[in-house]
Design a protein that fits this description.
Strand order of the largest sheet: 1-2
Structural class: mainly alpha
Number of domains: 1
Distance between the termini: 64 Å
Helix content: 55-70%
Order of helices and strands: HHEEHHH
CATH class: Mainly Alpha
Strand content: under 5%
Number of strands: 2
CATH topology: 10k-s Protein, Hypothetical Protein A, Chain A
Number of helices: 5
CATH architecture: Orthogonal Bundle
């Protein structure tokens, strides 16, 4: 491997290792998702998101949320997040549910983003009572 490639790899590794891995707050995620919502274009089933870092980070975060929201412990039960979105709930639906919740519950935005998102999903997509 040429020497300049080795140096570049070392710099990238140092930057990545030196970056603190911390959870973002609900407030930070709200800011990112507002940037997404301001610039998103939806035509039919296609969604074009803005290229800003905030918009992309919200979209990526909600991709993981959407994946977890579809994971259940038992068939027909609630998702592991404690919510029950329908199978046709889109990622943009998740984003907008979080935005509605965050704007209506500003005190919850001081929590970790993951907690605020779970609360938002439980509010937007409640599970039917079990008999």
């Amino acid at each position: 491997m040429p020497n300049h490639w080795l140096r570049a790899a070392a710099v990238i590794a140092a930057v990545m290792l030196g970056t603190p891995a911390g959870a973002i707050s609900g407030q930070q995620l709200l800011k990112q998702c507002e940037a997404l919502d301001r610039g998103v274009v939806q035509k039919g089933g296609a969604v074009a998101i803005p290229g800003s870092r905030d918009a992309v980070e919200c979209w990526s975060y909600m991709a993981a949320v959407q994946d977890f929201a579809g994971t259940v412990e038992q068939e027909g039960g609630p998702s592991i997040l404690g919510s029950c979105p329908s199978s046709d709930t889109t990622r943009l639906d998740f984003v907008r549910a979080f935005l509605r919740y965050g704007r209506g519950h500003p005190a919850d935005l001081d929590l970790k983003a993951s907690v605020a998102v779970i609360l938002a999903l439980q509010s937007a997509f409640p599970c039917p009572p079990r008999s």
